[in-house]
Specification:
Protein name: Putative rhodanese-related sulfurtransferase
Bound molecules: zinc ion
Number of strands: 15
GO molecular function: oxidoreductase activity; transferase activity
Helix content: 10-25%
Oligomer: single chain
Structural class: alpha/beta
Pfam family, one: Rhodanese
Number of helices: 8
Keywords: Oxidoreductase, Transferase, tRNA processing
CATH superfamily of the largest domain: Rhodanese-like domain
């Protein structure tokens, strides 16, 4: 943790890095030279020699600060002891599919195949794979109860493809699913980011990609479908606004005019309540 923190500080990088006994995951922003230096230095640590990095347009200003933390889990599913890793990575996870391999599997298995969104339900409001199942989860912590609820038992003998932003959440989600009886689990290698780089908006992805920095969302092309709509007036929008109730702050899809309206700039639950009288 100290090594990574010092390295980022030295290079003027901002962002968020989580380190656990299972590995490391994070996003940093800064000048191209600084980011390149970061990848080079990080790979010098032998276990990280083959680490994958994904690149996207942005800067240090997309992040409010630098945060480097050591945690029990890289992704907070609430199951630190269920996850086991060896030199090859996670043990007992899903079969990795490259974007082309995903298309091949869809061709072979047709309607039998199910897409299962591995993100928070909110993220899928603005973009998801066509006909994907979106579990009712507010945070990753809700996933285990959702998987054990019985709602998805009919998928347990079907080919299920999980996906998430960059492929990391699925690394943890897929063994949790397999341990709970899902027989044929796949995961999209490199996540939506890599799929979008390869197929843009001409494949099976629809809409915008929610991202965890100031950009909030990104599109793969000008052809991106607009899936989101304002919770108040149904105007198409991909912009999340924090509910103006300080005690809530829920990210809520809102059009520019509702977001600018003092009476309306609240989530569905808070709008019209005592909080804004
Ligand atoms: Zn509106
Ligand atoms: Zn609210």
């Amino acid at each position: 943790m100290l090594w990574q923190k010092t390295l980022c500080e030295m290079l003027g990088l901002k962002g968020r890095i989580i380190i656990s006994k299972h590995g490391i995951n994070g996003t940093v922003g800064g000048s191209l030279t600084a980011c390149k230096m970061y990848t080079r230095r990080t790979r010098e640590f032998a276990p990280f020699k083959n680490m994958e990095f994904k690149w996207s347009q942005g800067s240090a200003d997309d992040f409010p600060r630098l945060s480097v933390k050591a945690r029990d889990e890289i992704v907070a599913f609430g199951a630190p002891d269920e996850i086991k890793v060896d030199e090859q990575g996670i043990i007992g996870g899903g079969v990795h599919l490259k974007p082309e391999e995903l298309h091949k599997l869809v061709e072979e298995r047709g309607d039998e195949l199910v897409f299962f969104d591995g993100r928070n339900a909110m993220e899928a409001e603005i973009g998801k794979f066509k006909d994907a199942i979106v579990p009712d989860v507010t945070t990753t912590h809700d996933f285990i109860a959702e998987l054990e609820s019985g709602k998805y038992d009919h998928l347990k003998d079907k080919p299920v493809v999980t996906y998430c932003t960059g492929g990391i959440r699925c690394e943890v989600l897929t063994p949790l699913m397999k341990n709970r009886g899902f027989q044929e689990v796949y995961q999209l290698d490199g996540g939506i980011v890599r799929y979008g780089e390869r197929f843009g908006d001409s494949g099976l992805w629809e809409g915008s990609l929610y991202v965890f920095d100031r950009r909030m969302h990104m599109e793969f092309s000008d052809e991106a479908k607009q899936l989101g709509q304002c919770v108040h007036c149904e105007t198409p929008t991909n912009d999340f606004v924090n509910c103006h109730n300080e005690a809530c702050r829920k990210q809520t899809l809102m059009c520019a005019s509702c977001a600018a309206d003092e009476k309306k700039a609240y989530c569905e639950r808070c709008v019209g309540t005592a909080a804004n009288q």
